Predict the structure.
Amino acid sequence: MEIIVLMGPPGAGKGTVSESITAQGKFKHISTGDLFREAVTSGSEIGKEIAGYMESGSLVPDNVTIKLIENIFDSSNKEAKFMLDGFPRTIGQAEMLENALKERNGIISHVFFLNTKKDVLIQRLTGRRICKDCKAIYHTLFSPSKVDGICDVCGGELYQREDDCLETIENRLNVYNKKTASLVDFYKSKGSFVEVDVNKKPAEICDEINNILKEN
Ligand code: ADP
Ligand code: ZN
């Protein structure tokens, strides 16, 4: 099993970059945020529990998150390659991932750290729109759809995530600084850590990452 990790604060562009990298067909995309949103939409018991955390911008507890990832690993074949987007998000999750990989002979080949300034993150998050059907990501100013509210790719309806409102964004950024930012040092000390400048066009960022992935 080979893993690459995309980390960075909300709004850094993990979703956009992972769309492009998974389009290359090598890595399977695992977004804990997307999986949790699906659980919430399904209306299951666990979905109801998760909804409370997500609406306020807090983290879903580690034990719930970790179980989700282990289930995916255990239902995949041993040669699978995954791109983790939004996981790990705490030191506890990162340590669990180390253990889970040790048990399954897996490695983390790269950790890509996407980062930019707070005001840029807020601007990106408040303007973000997502297709209900194919999950393509747009921005009202930086990458608007051709027809307002309609996806260019599939014609689906665009929506704004409930947690992309200013108040919740502030909380998500605080949670990131408190719980996730320390993962940078955790992974820096382990090597294969790549800091990516995200103040460029998405296509350039994706080329940079794809070129690094091609090297090995
Ligand atoms: P963003 O990175 O833009 O905040 P995500 O879709 O990755 O968006 O996450 C949305 C929400 O889902 C988070 O605010 C949190 O409540 C929950 N979540 C996602 N990933 C994790 C995780 N690894 N651990 C705990 N909670 C998570
Ligand atoms: Zn679409």
Observations:
- The chain has two domains: 2-116+174-214, 118-164.
- The CA atoms of residues 58 and 172 lie 7 Å apart.
- Strands lie at 2-7, 28-31, 81-85, 107-115, 128-131, 137-139, 158-159, 193-197.
- The two ends are 15 Å apart (CA to CA).
